[in-house]
Write a structure and sequence with these properties.
- The chain is of the alpha/beta class.
- The protein has a domain of about 100 residues: Phosphohistidine domain (Glucose Oxidase, domain 1), CATH 3.50.30.
- Helix content is about 50%, strand content about 20%.
- The chain has eleven helices and ten strands.
- The strands form two sheets. It has an eight-stranded mixed β-sheet, with helices on one face. Strands 1-2 form a two-stranded antiparallel ribbon.
């Protein structure tokens, strides 16, 4: 993903083998897509016979398509940056994580031999705050960072609740045990039929998503990763609950109503 290391071609080949199911699945997706495009065209014909209005009405579709191009550009940028930072780290004799916590000017100074406070980078890695106001950049570490956070970031108190609401993206009504997973290291606890609850999913969590009976996230829109994958895998999914990872815990039993976007806690 954003920090790497970049995934190799072999990874994508294996994912295709796993998900395409001998080509039948992708053929079905193309067929479904054809139907949707046909319905869109009929709807546009009903809404307007004016070419100018048709262009306006089809604009949201074109806007959504740009998201794919935007993400491609972002991933390529992250991929290129990882290679660049890796080379800089190698020349400076530091880790790539340390290099990530340097400002642009510090990177330039370090390459010129004018920056060597690498212990400061370790402190930033542990706990830091970086912000910019009117072009002035500030990097705080340790106790100063914690003080700034306490004074400037409001913590939202979440009251205990047995019902959550969000945006439904793939229909279904299922019950299962919750597994809160935000990092690949946590995938090991996921069992087939569990309810995957995550702050926001990403490709690293696909093995857990493939086992899920339903997916619930804090964040996301209709074209987010969880929404796209749930529709591809035909998994009931509710996104944008805001607080699911804070009020649900591992092994809680919940009912996910992905038609109405409601998640209810059940008695264990």
């Amino acid at each position: 993903m954003y920090e790497g290391p970049p995934l190799k071609k072999r990874y994508f080949i294996e994912q295709l083998k796993l998900n395409l199911k001998g080509g039948m699945y992708i053929a079905k997706e193309f067929e479904e897509n054809k139907k949707i495009i046909g319905l869109q065209e009929k709807l546009l014909e009903r809404l307007s016979d004016n070419e100018s209005e048709k262009k306006i009405l089809s604009f949201p579709k074109r806007l959504i398509e740009t998201k794919g191009h935007r993400k491609d550009a972002m991933y390529f940028g992250c991929f290129s940056l990882t290679k660049l930072l890796g080379e800089i780290a190698k020349r400076l004799g530091i880790s790539i994580d340390q290099a990530r916590f340097m400002t642009r000017q510090e990177l330039l100074d370090a390459l010129d031999g004018e920056f060597n406070d690498f212990e400061l980078l370790n402190e930033r890695f542990k706990y830091s705050v970086f912000y910019s106001v009117n072009g002035k950049r500030t990097f705080l570490v340790g106790s100063e960072a914690r003080k700034w956070y306490k004074e400037n970031v409001a913590e939202v108190k979440i009251s205990e609740t047995n019902e959550l609401t969000g945006t439904p993206v793939f229909d279904g009504l299922v019950t299962g045990k919750v597994k809160v997973i935000n990092h690949p290291n946590e995938i090991i606890k996921m069992e087939k039929g569990d309810i995957l609850v995550s702050h926001a999913t990403n490709p690293n969590l696909l093995p857990a998503m493939a086992k899920a009976r339903a997916i619930v996230t804090d964040l996301g829109g209709l074209t987010c990763h969880a929404a796209i994958v749930s529709r591809e895998f035909r998994i009931p999914c509710v996104i944008g609950t805001n607080i699911a990872t804070q009020v649900l815990k591992d092994n809680d039993v919940v009912e996910v109503d992905a038609k109405n976007g409601i998640i209810k806690k059940k008695k264990n």
